[in-house]
Amino acid sequence: LLAAGRAASAWRAWGWTDDDRFYSRAGRENPGSPRARLGLGVAFAEGGDKEGAVREFLRAARLDPREPWPYFNLGKLAWEAGERGPAEELFLEAHARNPRLSPVLVFLGLAAEARGDHAQAQARYRRALEVQPLDATAAHGLGILLWRRGRRGEAAELLRRFLELAPRDAESGAVRSLLNSPGSPREGDRRD
Hints:
Layout: H1 2-13, H2 19-29, H3 34-46, H4 50-63, H5 69-80, H6 84-97, H7 102-114, H8 118-131, H9 136-148, H10 152-165, H11 172-179
């Protein structure tokens, strides 16, 4: 997905202005390219064409069954539609293809948390941070989970890391308020 995004940015810099057009052309010129199908699926999803996105993600999965990103993106679409069970199954499919993808681990953490399995959610977020220490979303997910579970010292460290990594994230204001609330651990205070 990231490679597809970087390619799209490079092409736009050279005159392309529309992801749909770019990936549609790439798909026509390279009908056997799972990356072109994946990129077109992302463009469709971002443009609100969920049916087109699903179609292209499924094509990408058929073209390269080992590729995790089509399953991850299908899982994201299911998650956005509120279909937590099917989304988790798709994230597990992506994870089976590559267990070292931080975004997949984060969504598996979210799914475990939604099911009430806090131990598994914590393990998934921690693994995401092992794989990608600079994953702001994993730091946020684990920080909020630990905060809710009463482990405020470690949670505060993770939430501060989140703010360093993603200071303009939509959640940053709420996290700052949480960290500035009465009784919140101060920097360096790991007491839980």
